[in-house]
Each structure stands twice: as structure tokens, then as C-alpha cells.
Amino acid sequence: MSATTLAHTAPVSTDAATRGLVEIRGVSKSYSGHEVLHDVNLTVQPGEVVAILGPSGSGKSTLLRTINHLESVDRGWVTVDGQLIGYEQRGDKLFELKEKDILKRRTQVGVVFQNFNLFPHLTAAENIAKAPVALKRVSKSDGHELALGLLAKVGLSDKADAYPRQLSGGQQQRVAIARALALTPKVLLFDEPTSALDPELVGEVLDVIRDLAKLGTTLIIVTHEIGFAREVADRIVFIDGGHVLEVGTPAQVFGSPTHARTKEFLGKVL
Ligand code: ADP
Ligand code: MG
């Protein structure tokens, strides 16, 4: 695959002293002429927990997917720890990387989806060890040890040999979190991690995310669990119609939202 030239230019800051861990700058994205992200800017600091809230169809998933280049962007750029994701800079232009290099850089960013997406034919431990063994030249036995350690971290030490179908939704999602951690990403993205779960299983997954937050893991979480967002997030981002309308501490956004759309949304969900 040859590199694709993109329409946008890229004044990428490389000043390590001032940049955030994740920098999203001027990101716009359209699907067949319909703009779903409009000039999105967001900086996430190391160790920060950012919750993204917004109505259905507002662009939350698309934004998250641009952070690890599961979606390309039409304008703007994303860096993680100063490194462009999905693109390389030549002069003042960005070129899309080759698939192999996209994958390499994507290992900096872990993702947990709504529907777990575990490999059904692999055990919990094999699901977790797969990427480190395939991408980081970790030996199979080291990969297994790594998996056991991560399973302990999510409270599933006894499930190493279980297949996904033998696990509850909450357990599967905890395995998915352990799998996302296996490549020691610099930031972990969650896209509605509890939306597919029966209500009684939501708590165990939120507990794991809460523990990660306490350990100082950098997290960006799209969620409809407003109470949880309020409790764990350092900052709340409210997005509507592809526009970031509000960014602030939970106290600011929940206590005194500045935008009418935020008030309306919070009025419905709180
Ligand atoms: P959210 O996660 O906030 O519900 P999404 O990011 O999934 O919103 O979607 C934002 C908008 O982009 C929606 O209008 C959706 O229909 C549209 N969209 C998302 N993905 C695609 C796609 N692959 N092709 C066309 N339209 C899409
Ligand atoms: Mg979504």
C-alpha cells in the first residue's frame, strides 16, 4: 500500500515540556459529506482520566477511533506521547503510514469496546498473550506469565483457561481490559465499556476501571454512566453534533454547564 497524501498540513509540536500525553488538534471528519467531527481539540495529560459524554450519534465513538487511527481524519492530527498516530510528517504535510507501521504505533493506545470482541477460540490467557507474542516478540511462556499477572489485576486469576463463552459478560469485559493492558499502552480508551452488560455486572467492570484510574493510568472513557464519570474523571468533555461544547472538571460541567445543549443533555440523564 502506498502512502496517501492528505489535504491537511501539520504544525506538530514536538516540545516535550509543554505537550500533553494525547494531543488532538483541529480534527475534522466527514462521512459522505456529513461532518461528524468538527475541529475537535483536546489535550489529555499523563495520568488524567477524561470522560466523554454526549447524545447518541454525537461523534463520541468516531473521536475515540481517530485516537488510534481506526478512523482516518480529514483534517488535523493526533499525537500520543509526541508521536503522530496513523501518519508521518514530511515537510508540512501528513502522509498516512503503511498498515504495518500503523499497527506498530497503535500499540501505544489500548482500546476496550462495548462488545468485548474477544477471540472466541482462544482462552482468556491466550486472548491476552496474543498481541504481545505476535507484535513484541514476547516468548509464548513469557506471554502466558504476563497474561496470568494481568488476569490477577482484573480479579480473574482462576479463569486463565476459560473460553469466552464460559465467562459472563462482566468477566469477558475484564479479560478485554487485561488484553488492552498487555501491550503496556500509554493511554487506554473505553467506548461504552458497560453498555452491553446486564445491570448486575456493570459494577465489577467499573471497579476495574476505577482501580486503573487510581494507579495513574491515563484513561479516555466514553460512557453513559454519569455517576461514574463524575466520580472518577478529572475532566468531562461534552460533545454534541461533532462539536466539543464543554470541557471542564465534573464540578464545572455538572454544577454550572455553560452551554444550553449540555444543560438539556444533563437534564435528561441526571
Ligand atoms: P456516538 O458514538 O456518539 O453515538 P458515532 O461516532 O458512532 O456517534 O457517530 C457519529 C455520526 O457518524 C453518526 O451520525 C453516525 O451515523 C455517523 N457514522 C459513524 N460511523 C460511520 C460510518 N462508518 N459511515 C457513515 N457514517 C458513520
Ligand atoms: Mg458510540
Automatic annotation (TrEMBL):
Record's subcellular location: Cell membrane
Major location (coarse): membrane
GO cellular component: plasma membrane
Domain (ABC transporter): residue spans on this chain: 22-266
EC code: 7.4.2.1
Topology class, membrane: Peripheral membrane protein
GO MF terms held by the record: ATP binding; ATP hydrolysis activity; ATPase-coupled polar amino acid-transporter activity
UniProtKB keywords: Amino-acid transport, ATP-binding, Cell membrane, Membrane, Nucleotide-binding, Transport
InterPro entries hit by this protein: AAA+_ATPase (IPR003593), ABC_ATPase_HisP-typ (IPR030679), ABC_transporter-like_ATP-bd (IPR003439), ABC_transporter-like_CS (IPR017871), MetN_ABC_transporter-like (IPR050086), P-loop_NTPase (IPR027417)
Pfam family, any one: ABC_tran
Sequence similarity: Belongs to the ABC transporter superfamily.
UniProt name for this protein: ABC-type polar-amino-acid transporter
Record organism: Cryobacterium arcticum
Highest classification ranks of the organism: Bacteria, Bacillati, Actinomycetota, Actinomycetes, Micrococcales
